[in-house]
Amino acid sequence: MFGYFFARMAQVALREIAAGNADPFYQGKLQTARFYFAKLFPETATLMRTARAGSQSLMDSDAALA
């Protein structure tokens, strides 16, 4: 979901910059989107696999080990 919003944000920023808007706000939006897609978005697949793996392995642990 966040990826969609970052992509939309970048799309609007690119459109504004192409139209000649020199407001640094739009450049900041592009930099933020680049950071998100380069650093945070790739982690999403791993986090989704972890979340979907469930908690059974934790529940199978002996209470004495906790």
Automatic annotation (TrEMBL):
Residues 2-61 form the Acetyl-CoA dehydrogenase-like C-terminal domain. This is Acetyl-CoA dehydrogenase-like C-terminal domain-containing protein. It comes from bioreactor metagenome.
